[in-house]
Amino acid sequence: MLDAFLIGNNTDEKVRTGVTVVLCPKGAVGGVSVRGGAPATHETDLLRSENTVESVNAVVLAGGSAFGLESISGVMRYCYEQGLGYDAGGNRVPICTGAAIYDLEYGSFGFPDKEAGYLAAKSASAVVDCVGRVGAGCGATVSKLAGMQNAVASGMAVVTAKRGELEMAVVTVVNALGNIYDPMTGRAISEVIPSEKGATHSNTTISCVITNAKITKAQANKLADVTQDAYARTIRPVHTGFDGDSVFVLAGGEVECDMLTLQLLAQELCESAIVKAVKQ
Fold first, then answer.
1. Cα–Cα dist 139/130, whole Å
2. All domains of the chain, ordered by start, with CATH?
Protein backbone atom coordinates (compact mmCIF):
# COMPACT_ATOMS: atom_id res chain seq x y z
CA MET A 1 0.00 0.00 0.00
CA LEU A 2 1.48 3.34 -1.09
CA ASP A 3 4.94 1.80 -1.43
CA ALA A 4 6.58 5.14 -2.24
CA PHE A 5 5.76 6.49 1.24
CA LEU A 6 6.70 5.74 4.84
CA ILE A 7 5.29 6.96 8.16
CA GLY A 8 7.19 7.26 11.44
CA ASN A 9 6.38 8.49 14.95
CA ASN A 10 8.30 9.61 18.00
CA THR A 11 6.33 9.96 21.22
CA ASP A 12 7.21 11.57 24.54
CA GLU A 13 4.57 10.16 26.88
CA LYS A 14 6.03 11.93 29.91
CA VAL A 15 5.67 15.40 28.39
CA ARG A 16 2.68 14.35 26.26
CA THR A 17 3.92 15.49 22.90
CA GLY A 18 5.49 14.00 19.81
CA VAL A 19 6.09 14.13 16.08
CA THR A 20 4.74 12.22 13.07
CA VAL A 21 6.69 12.12 9.79
CA VAL A 22 5.50 11.18 6.31
CA LEU A 23 8.54 10.36 4.18
CA CYS A 24 8.66 10.10 0.38
CA PRO A 25 12.19 8.94 -0.48
CA LYS A 26 11.53 9.17 -4.23
CA GLY A 27 9.96 12.60 -3.85
CA ALA A 28 6.34 13.61 -4.33
CA VAL A 29 4.37 16.53 -5.70
CA GLY A 30 3.18 18.60 -2.73
CA GLY A 31 0.32 20.93 -1.93
CA VAL A 32 -1.10 22.62 1.15
CA SER A 33 -4.15 24.50 2.40
CA VAL A 34 -4.02 26.63 5.56
CA ARG A 35 -7.36 28.02 6.73
CA GLY A 36 -7.00 28.43 10.46
CA GLY A 37 -6.14 31.87 11.79
CA ALA A 38 -3.28 30.76 14.06
CA PRO A 39 -1.03 28.36 12.12
CA ALA A 40 2.45 27.16 13.07
CA THR A 41 3.93 26.06 9.72
CA HIS A 42 7.24 25.53 7.92
CA GLU A 43 8.11 25.96 4.22
CA THR A 44 4.48 26.10 3.10
CA ASP A 45 5.32 28.89 0.64
CA LEU A 46 7.41 26.40 -1.32
CA LEU A 47 4.23 24.49 -2.10
CA ARG A 48 2.55 27.40 -3.88
CA SER A 49 1.80 26.46 -7.46
CA GLU A 50 3.89 29.30 -8.91
CA ASN A 51 7.05 28.52 -6.94
CA THR A 52 10.03 26.54 -8.20
CA VAL A 53 10.38 23.35 -6.15
CA GLU A 54 8.20 20.51 -7.44
CA SER A 55 9.29 17.56 -5.28
CA VAL A 56 8.81 17.20 -1.52
CA ASN A 57 10.77 14.74 0.66
CA ALA A 58 8.74 14.86 3.87
CA VAL A 59 5.73 16.32 5.64
CA VAL A 60 6.13 16.71 9.39
CA LEU A 61 3.20 16.93 11.80
CA ALA A 62 4.44 17.98 15.23
CA GLY A 63 3.33 18.80 18.73
CA GLY A 64 4.85 21.63 20.72
CA SER A 65 3.40 24.59 18.81
CA ALA A 66 6.04 26.72 17.07
CA PHE A 67 8.72 25.15 19.29
CA GLY A 68 7.94 21.77 17.74
CA LEU A 69 8.88 22.99 14.28
CA GLU A 70 12.46 22.36 15.44
CA SER A 71 11.79 18.66 14.82
CA ILE A 72 11.78 19.36 11.07
CA SER A 73 15.52 20.05 11.27
CA GLY A 74 16.03 16.49 12.48
CA VAL A 75 13.97 15.13 9.60
CA MET A 76 16.05 17.21 7.20
CA ARG A 77 19.24 15.78 8.68
CA TYR A 78 17.95 12.24 8.20
CA CYS A 79 16.92 12.94 4.61
CA TYR A 80 20.29 14.54 3.87
CA GLU A 81 22.08 11.44 5.17
CA GLN A 82 19.97 9.37 2.76
CA GLY A 83 21.00 11.55 -0.16
CA LEU A 84 17.54 13.06 -0.58
CA GLY A 85 16.71 16.63 -1.53
CA TYR A 86 16.70 19.37 -4.10
CA ASP A 87 19.90 19.60 -6.13
CA ALA A 88 21.08 23.10 -5.30
CA GLY A 89 24.41 22.67 -7.07
CA GLY A 90 27.07 21.66 -4.58
CA ASN A 91 24.66 20.04 -2.12
CA ARG A 92 21.22 18.52 -1.86
CA VAL A 93 18.72 20.38 0.30
CA PRO A 94 15.90 18.17 1.64
CA ILE A 95 12.47 19.69 1.09
CA CYS A 96 10.63 19.12 4.35
CA THR A 97 7.46 21.02 5.10
CA GLY A 98 5.08 20.71 8.02
CA ALA A 99 2.93 22.18 10.76
CA ALA A 100 2.49 21.92 14.52
CA ILE A 101 -0.39 21.74 16.96
CA TYR A 102 -0.55 23.59 20.27
CA ASP A 103 -0.35 20.98 23.04
CA LEU A 104 1.78 22.85 25.58
CA GLU A 105 -0.94 22.94 28.25
CA TYR A 106 -1.93 19.26 28.17
CA GLY A 107 1.14 17.79 29.88
CA SER A 108 4.27 19.46 31.24
CA PHE A 109 6.00 21.99 29.00
CA GLY A 110 7.99 20.36 26.23
CA PHE A 111 8.19 19.84 22.49
CA PRO A 112 9.66 17.45 19.92
CA ASP A 113 13.19 18.62 19.14
CA LYS A 114 15.64 17.82 16.34
CA GLU A 115 16.49 14.44 17.81
CA ALA A 116 12.80 13.50 18.03
CA GLY A 117 12.33 14.41 14.38
CA TYR A 118 15.38 12.40 13.36
CA LEU A 119 14.21 9.33 15.29
CA ALA A 120 10.70 9.58 13.86
CA ALA A 121 12.10 9.67 10.33
CA LYS A 122 14.51 6.82 11.06
CA SER A 123 11.66 4.66 12.42
CA ALA A 124 9.39 5.24 9.41
CA SER A 125 7.75 2.13 7.98
CA ALA A 126 4.97 1.08 5.61
CA VAL A 127 1.70 3.01 5.49
CA VAL A 128 -1.00 1.07 7.37
CA ASP A 129 -4.24 1.92 9.15
CA CYS A 130 -3.64 2.88 12.76
CA VAL A 131 -5.03 5.02 15.55
CA GLY A 132 -3.62 6.12 18.88
CA ARG A 133 -2.22 8.79 21.15
CA VAL A 134 1.18 8.56 19.51
CA GLY A 135 3.45 10.89 17.60
CA ALA A 136 1.98 14.33 17.13
CA GLY A 137 -1.31 13.02 18.50
CA CYS A 138 0.09 12.27 21.96
CA GLY A 139 -0.96 15.62 23.41
CA ALA A 140 -3.95 16.32 21.18
CA THR A 141 -7.28 17.37 22.70
CA VAL A 142 -10.65 18.58 21.41
CA SER A 143 -13.79 20.34 22.67
CA LYS A 144 -12.07 23.27 24.38
CA LEU A 145 -14.97 25.72 24.13
CA ALA A 146 -15.23 25.62 27.93
CA GLY A 147 -11.48 25.81 28.52
CA MET A 148 -8.63 23.29 28.70
CA GLN A 149 -9.86 21.94 32.03
CA ASN A 150 -12.87 20.48 30.20
CA ALA A 151 -11.01 19.30 27.09
CA VAL A 152 -11.32 15.74 25.79
CA ALA A 153 -8.24 13.72 24.83
CA SER A 154 -8.02 12.73 21.16
CA GLY A 155 -5.04 11.63 19.07
CA MET A 156 -3.93 10.76 15.55
CA ALA A 157 -5.19 8.30 12.96
CA VAL A 158 -4.14 6.89 9.61
CA VAL A 159 -6.92 5.65 7.31
CA THR A 160 -6.19 3.98 3.95
CA ALA A 161 -8.24 3.01 0.90
CA LYS A 162 -7.76 1.48 -2.53
CA ARG A 163 -9.95 2.07 -5.59
CA GLY A 164 -8.60 -0.09 -8.40
CA GLU A 165 -5.01 1.06 -8.93
CA LEU A 166 -5.60 4.29 -6.99
CA GLU A 167 -4.28 4.23 -3.44
CA MET A 168 -4.76 6.89 -0.76
CA ALA A 169 -4.23 7.46 2.93
CA VAL A 170 -4.99 10.35 5.24
CA VAL A 171 -2.91 11.02 8.34
CA THR A 172 -4.60 13.40 10.76
CA VAL A 173 -3.89 14.87 14.18
CA VAL A 174 -7.07 16.21 15.77
CA ASN A 175 -6.51 19.06 18.22
CA ALA A 176 -9.57 21.23 17.61
CA LEU A 177 -11.11 24.04 19.59
CA GLY A 178 -14.52 22.81 18.47
CA ASN A 179 -16.68 19.79 19.20
CA ILE A 180 -16.46 16.69 17.02
CA TYR A 181 -19.43 15.21 15.14
CA ASP A 182 -19.97 12.06 13.11
CA PRO A 183 -20.80 13.38 9.60
CA MET A 184 -22.85 10.27 8.80
CA THR A 185 -25.26 10.63 11.74
CA GLY A 186 -24.80 14.23 12.86
CA ARG A 187 -24.33 12.99 16.41
CA ALA A 188 -21.71 14.49 18.71
CA ILE A 189 -18.69 12.34 19.46
CA SER A 190 -17.09 14.87 21.77
CA GLU A 191 -19.11 17.85 22.97
CA VAL A 192 -18.94 20.50 25.66
CA ILE A 193 -21.13 23.55 26.20
CA PRO A 194 -19.26 26.79 25.44
CA SER A 195 -18.44 29.10 28.32
CA GLU A 196 -17.31 32.71 28.48
CA LYS A 197 -13.82 31.53 29.44
CA GLY A 198 -13.54 29.21 26.45
CA ALA A 199 -11.79 30.06 23.17
CA THR A 200 -8.41 28.79 24.34
CA HIS A 201 -5.48 29.11 21.94
CA SER A 202 -4.59 25.42 22.48
CA ASN A 203 -5.73 24.13 19.11
CA THR A 204 -5.14 23.15 15.45
CA THR A 205 -6.02 20.10 13.35
CA ILE A 206 -3.36 19.05 10.83
CA SER A 207 -3.53 16.34 8.17
CA CYS A 208 -1.64 14.91 5.22
CA VAL A 209 -3.30 13.27 2.22
CA ILE A 210 -1.00 10.66 0.61
CA THR A 211 -1.75 9.20 -2.80
CA ASN A 212 -0.11 7.44 -5.72
CA ALA A 213 -2.11 9.59 -8.15
CA LYS A 214 -0.43 11.60 -10.88
CA ILE A 215 -1.38 15.25 -10.43
CA THR A 216 0.20 18.66 -10.87
CA LYS A 217 1.30 20.97 -8.10
CA ALA A 218 -1.74 23.17 -8.74
CA GLN A 219 -4.02 20.15 -8.47
CA ALA A 220 -2.30 19.07 -5.25
CA ASN A 221 -3.05 22.48 -3.76
CA LYS A 222 -6.66 22.26 -4.89
CA LEU A 223 -6.98 18.77 -3.41
CA ALA A 224 -5.65 20.06 -0.09
CA ASP A 225 -8.13 22.92 -0.16
CA VAL A 226 -11.23 20.83 -0.81
CA THR A 227 -10.17 18.28 1.82
CA GLN A 228 -10.72 21.06 4.36
CA ASP A 229 -14.43 20.41 3.78
CA ALA A 230 -13.98 17.26 5.87
CA TYR A 231 -12.96 19.50 8.77
CA ALA A 232 -16.11 21.57 8.30
CA ARG A 233 -18.33 18.48 8.39
CA THR A 234 -16.77 17.02 11.55
CA ILE A 235 -15.57 19.98 13.65
CA ARG A 236 -17.76 22.82 14.95
CA PRO A 237 -16.65 25.55 15.04
CA VAL A 238 -13.73 25.16 12.67
CA HIS A 239 -11.09 27.39 11.01
CA THR A 240 -11.34 29.85 13.89
CA GLY A 241 -8.84 32.51 14.85
CA PHE A 242 -7.63 30.12 17.56
CA ASP A 243 -6.98 27.19 15.16
CA GLY A 244 -4.20 26.68 12.63
CA ASP A 245 -6.11 24.10 10.58
CA SER A 246 -3.95 22.84 7.72
CA VAL A 247 -4.02 20.04 5.12
CA PHE A 248 -0.99 18.83 3.16
CA VAL A 249 -1.00 16.65 0.05
CA LEU A 250 1.72 14.34 -1.27
CA ALA A 251 1.21 12.68 -4.67
CA GLY A 252 3.55 9.96 -5.95
CA GLY A 253 2.65 10.34 -9.63
CA GLU A 254 2.10 6.67 -10.48
CA VAL A 255 -1.58 6.40 -11.45
CA GLU A 256 -3.78 8.58 -13.67
CA CYS A 257 -6.98 9.66 -11.90
CA ASP A 258 -9.64 12.32 -12.31
CA MET A 259 -9.77 15.08 -9.73
CA LEU A 260 -13.36 14.48 -8.65
CA THR A 261 -12.54 10.92 -7.59
CA LEU A 262 -9.51 12.15 -5.65
CA GLN A 263 -11.45 14.92 -3.94
CA LEU A 264 -14.33 12.70 -2.84
CA LEU A 265 -12.02 9.98 -1.54
CA ALA A 266 -9.78 12.44 0.32
CA GLN A 267 -12.77 14.01 2.05
CA GLU A 268 -14.19 10.61 2.96
CA LEU A 269 -10.89 9.36 4.43
CA CYS A 270 -10.22 12.61 6.29
CA GLU A 271 -13.66 12.51 7.91
CA SER A 272 -13.09 8.90 8.92
CA ALA A 273 -9.63 9.68 10.33
CA ILE A 274 -10.95 12.58 12.42
CA VAL A 275 -13.76 10.46 13.86
CA LYS A 276 -11.42 7.55 14.64
CA ALA A 277 -8.81 9.78 16.27
CA VAL A 278 -11.40 11.12 18.71
CA LYS A 279 -13.40 7.92 19.28
CA GLN A 280 -10.39 5.83 20.38
1. 17
2. 6-279 (3.60.70.12)
